[in-house]
Design brief:
Largest sheet: 6 strands, antiparallel
Helix content: 25-40%
Order of helices and strands: HEEEEHEEHH
Radius of gyration: 20 Å
Oligomer: single chain
Low-confidence stretches: 103-112
């Protein structure tokens, strides 16, 4: 009678571990929490990831709980298995970032310039800073806060 074969030991290297770098989703969740705290939860940031094929799509929404959870999509990002480079997609993002260092990095999506590519975490953080400071973002946030208080 044949003896059962021994299981093959792991062929993976012993140093297989997760990266310690912050992912774009982690950064967006941190910023969502910061916005929620700054507005006393009248406007809540929400970052939601969805896998689509080999891409990861992340939506960043402004949600107003007192308006039956009305949601405004501020932007979305997409990236592959590797977190960078990533694309930030938002209507008019080219105009929002026109005065920032990202002007040279703008891509032209169907002639609308609604996408910008960033290559690393530092660029991503600077792009987010520019988006959050943009006049268009501030107008939307002010309007949502005013409605949340009414």
């Amino acid at each position: 009678m044949a003896t059962p074969a021994s299981p093959i030991p792991s062929l993976w290297p012993s140093n297989v571990t997760g990266s310690t770098e912050r992912t774009p989703l982690t950064i967006l969740k941190e910023q969502a929490a910061a916005l929620s705290a700054q507005t006393n939860n009248f406007v809540v940031g929400k970052a939601t990831a969805t896998p689509v094929g080999e891409k990861i799509l992340i939506d960043f929404d402004l949600v107003v709980p007192t308006l039956m959870n009305y949601s405004y999509r501020l932007f979305k990002i997409s990236h592959g298995t590797m977190p960078y480079p990533l694309q930030i997609h938002a209507k008019g993002i080219a105009a929002q970032l026109a005065s920032s260092q990202f002007q040279a990095k703008l891509t032209n999506a169907l002639g609308l310039q609604d996408s910008v590519e960033v290559t690393d975490e530092n660029d991503f953080i600077e792009a987010l800073r520019a988006i959050f400071k943009a006049d268009a973002t501030q107008r939307v946030l002010s309007a949502l806060l005013a409605q949340a208080h009414s």
